[in-house]
Amino acid sequence: MNEKLQIVFGLVGGLAIFIYGMNMMSECLQKAAGEKMKSILALLTRNPVLGVLAGAITTAVLQSSSATTVMAIGFVSAGLMSLPQAISIIFGANIGTTMTAQIIAFKITDYIYIIIFIGFIISFVAKSEKVKSIGQTIFAFGLLFLGIETMGDVMKPLASSPVFTDLIAKVSNMPVLGVAVGTLMTLVVQSSSATIAVLQNFAAQAGPDGVTSILGLTGAIPILLGDNIGTTITALLASIGQNKDAKRTAVAHCIFNISGCLLFIWFIKPFAALIQYISPKGPEIEVISRQIANSHTVFNITMTLIWVCLINVMVKIVMTLIPDGKAVAVDSAKPLYLDEKMTNQPTAALQLVAKEILHISDIVKDAVSNTIEIVKTEDISQLEGLLEKGKNIKALTEKTTEYLALLFSSGTMTEQQAAQTASLMYILSDVERMGSLSVEIAKCIQEKEQNNYKYTPEAMDELQKSLRTLEKMFIDSMKALQGDKSVQIDKMLKRKDKIMDLDIKMRKAHLQRVNKGKCKASLTAPFTNILHLIDRMGNSCLNLADVAANEISLSYFMTVN
User: Fold this and answer.
1) Could you tell me which of 498, 501, 502, 506 has the C-alpha nearest to residue 527?
2) CA distances (Å), 494 to each of 368, 477, 489, 542, in order?
3) Is pTM, for the whole model, over 0.85?
4) Can you tell me the distance from the alpha carbon of 557 to that of 38, in angstroms, rounded to the nearest whole number?
5) How far apart are CA 184 and CA 125, in angstroms?
6) How far apart are CA 342 and CA 82, in angstroms?
7) Does position 151 have pLDDT exceeding 50, yes or no?
8) Of the segments 228-232, 287-291, 466-470, 491-495, which one has the largest average pLDDT value?
């Protein structure tokens, strides 16, 4: 094969192995970390410094600043996080992403295949899901370095190419060109970790003298700065279609990296001298990979220290660049919190689902209240608005169910998270049923008016009492599901007994009225149908209370609220 084609195919093939290994490691680390991710995310509510810490740790676990940034944008879009919190997380994510470059700087060429083998054996033999995930993480870690080694091998001939060395000399002498090259590389690959890995490998190639780096640290730093700018495109893409706060979060990410580039580009030589001073000593081609990693870390820590003190200034800047403007009408049938970009982060995605279920339950509460009003006034002109709410409840439930199905199909959930997802689907089903049944009762009142059914005032009064008891049961069950300890489940069970007693009493009273000629016998079927709907609503309330009694709480998922 042509030597140039071999270099190209080797480079893209090695890059593919590296990115695959990194993504696999990210996915398996999430599974291995499991619910520890919730503890990390719980730090977000404290202060900007802890937000930075949480962003750094989350990115170190996810092995992707892009994933953390998308998560922060999703949270701020859903209203689960304030703009300053999201910005502080992005600052931390920039520190956390330097971990990949630091790992790459270790020279473990001789151990790549044994690492891959150990990882394979652990994942193949292990029965425990957590141990299997650890094995897959080790396997992916080996793949990551295999990709790096492949790229390094095919780059060696480039070091002796006069055309290529002349081009590198231009980049080394023109920092702006280096920034442009780094930005373009990351825009294409969509991973700053991958492009920095390429940079570390290429810089480790010896120049014509066989001792110094072909690129040198002063030539690598501008490309590194460009890599940091290029990675912001992921945040900008994630903010498309989101609300203004999400867009502001993405813009803050851009400002962070662009301002850092504009600051450091004037001090490349002093910065390189500092890095060389604090980094291990030795032949340049042996230590430059670590120097690049240290440059990446120092750059991001410095910019974070600057901006975390000026976080209010950053908020003002992004608020000015993206002003509030006019309020946009919200589509009632569109989920407020779900974000498909977050399905690869199940810990975060489940929080959004819990929030969406509460949103649906609020609509259901209104629907039940409207039904009670229709029963009380027998004014069917209010039915149109109730039917619209019923359609919205159904549409939101379907979209939430589809989102949960996407979570299952992503393959990133642990067994515990899969069980939690099943619980959320169970809760969602009963919440939706409450809404649809209340609409059905209102339709029965419409049928009554249209067919001129004459129920006695006593029957209508008893119907209202049952619905008000159900309304109270539903509200209390949702409070219990949100962790409200003041709600007593045993009292809810007594309310269900009260409804059953009232149901029996209403049936007997109706038959007595029929016997006395106060009600027509033909009304028995439609009236019994209403009682059946009430009974089903009571069962749904009890189902929700039973879930709460088993200590499954929606508040458990919402650590950042």
Assistant:
1) 506
2) 20, 13, 9, 11
3) no
4) 8
5) 43
6) 18
7) yes
8) 287-291
